Amino acid sequence: MKRVVENRIFATCNADEFVGREAELERLLDHATATGGLAMLCEPSAGASELLRQAYDRFFVGGGEVVPFYFEIKPSDVDAKTLATRFVREFLLQTVAFRRSDKKILDSSPEICELAELAVPADGYWIDRLVETCKSDSRLNDDSSFVRNCLSAPLRAAGHGAKSFVMIDGLDVLPELSGGESLLAEMVSIFSRGSVPYIFSGQRRFMFGRTTLPTMPLNCLKQADAGELVESLSGSKGVNVNDQTRDLIAIQLGGRPGAIRSLFAAAAEHGVELDTFERVQKSYTDEIFGGRIGRGFDTMFDRLVPSVELQAKALRLLGETHSAGDTGIPFAYWKKHLGLSGDETSRLLGRLNCAELIRYESEVVRADANDVISADRIAARIKIEGGSRALIIGEALAANIRRAPALMARVYRRNSALGLREFLAAFDGSMVSRALIDYGRFKDELKGADKEKIQQALNDDNNKIALPQIVYTANAAAFYPQLAEIADAERIAIALGTDGDGKEIAVIAAEVESKLEATLENANFWCDRLEMAAYHCGFENFKIWLIAPEGFAKVALEALICRNAYGSSRKQAALLAQILNAKTATDTAAALADEYEITVPMGEDTEMIAAHTIEDIAKRHNFPSKAINQIKTAVVEACINATEHSLSPDRKIHQKFAVDDEKIVITIANRGLRLADKAAKQVEPQEGRRGWGLKLMKGLMDDVRIEQSDDGTRITMTKFIKTA
What we know:
CATH superfamily of the domain at 15-218: P-loop containing nucleotide triphosphate hydrolases
Low-confidence stretches: 1-5, 583-592, 679-691
CATH class of the domain at 15-218: Alpha Beta
Mean pLDDT: 87
Shape: globular
Strand content: 15-25%
CATH architecture of the domain at 15-218: 3-Layer(aba) Sandwich
Structural class: alpha/beta
Strand order of the largest sheet: 2-3-4-1-5
Largest sheet: 5 strands, parallel
Number of strands: 20
Radius of gyration: 31 Å
């Protein structure tokens, strides 16, 4: 059933559906009580306008002394005078509506001279004076004074007790207006003279360096936040999703809130579920070829390239640029095929760069490989022009369905990467044990040892190595695009800095895929390509560092030494990150721990399945036999309690086992009666192996915690490894 919207004013979605932006919204609301400006540097399609509109609605509904004012700059403003006229009218209209607590006024279209009559008595005088001043400037054809007086309206209002919170959106549109280039500087000059808090919002590549205001970045939603939005829309729109399709939608749409909402709106309108990859891709393909997502791209692109003649050429060049990958296409190629002068080509590329359809630097044009929506819509527009629409859509759908698992796999690989850029940046000239870098030493002396022994050995080791002092890091493909063809960007990085002797040095690090110890062939393959990158970049002094999950075979290590390279295991990297306190993409604790999950049905001695499972896990992690038997018994007792006393409606026991070098943490959860509602039965030992209960669990394990939930019980038990 459709929800009744009562408090939505400028926002396009309900407040309870606006998820994933709590921190950003809170910062905007806090800024309203401050002074001075804040520049929002926004990634295109990050939902900046909706964020500002939601902030406006919160203020309007909440009331108070501060008048919220939201103004969006539009291409239809044409020139500075038209924009200024609309600015002052919108400001007065919103002020009157807020001060009268009547949002219906916002939907009316009163003349600007009528607003004083609608205002509360305290505002009538200054509104009349402001309108008269602007009219006088207009009659005198003094456009500069007219624009300045109109834009100063919030400051004049504040002088009469109507303090406002000004939010100006779409500043990146200004260059499209006649006289718009100088308007941003005029706005900064005007508002910096007053105490009115204000927000200037625009695309980040346009805003960067144009003001000295404090900045607030606004990027597209991270996967977790985008997934939360997907789940919210699934509930509100009545469109089913599952965990897999939730993640696919979040990833494929790049965390763009508007695109995600468009997909769900279309699915709801057509009565389609989004609970399989095929259904998601069917709805997505329809959206790309003729839905809101496709139309949204077209609106933006047609504004950036208004000439119909140029649009076809620009689309084909964008398609070629996407196909070229990180190698990109030279500026000269774009210039030739657009048929424009150098300056005209630069201006067009500048607009496309600002909108982040391309990345234009060093006379090379590149596309963002992660921008799936733009690549798909560009391809759709190119193909539709010269072929059968039905055939083209069918082929695109088939390709999108095939792509979905690969897209997910790429993200899984990226999420499991160490985050080499951040890792290298944390080197900071530190002195560390050579065993943290040299896999040969680590394998001979420390592999398989417990955590305490490893830590002690590293601390006592006098064979230290000085890590470079790093000043700059980047994904290696930014230096040498060919590397993007052999690995994900996050898995190869280049760092520039100085070594212990003060000489310039480049460190080229890469994560190597290998199930077992990496072979000689694998090591040589990577050294060949990373050395080529070093020579291409002109690095005279460089060091190669390869990291493989299980380290390197002896013959591979010998080859690495001959090639002035280091080879390490993933375990070494995790330990080094821990020592450096590096903020790697993979949390160090998680890198040192394994997690297992199982769900078993209640009854029929299924607790023994759990017991055998935890026994295998504990043996894998070298727990002593006595501890394993204690853990097994505790798990059996927890399962028996859940089975016999919970009255569980689904008759399932969910178990998670998290193991690291120090301990094992076991979580057993079930639905049904809570232990607080019905205490677990304590029975005597003569009843056999069953029923020893919580008392025995607490005696067997080092820590036992009973956590009550809204429905059921969760028991968390911890067993530490006792070292001699």
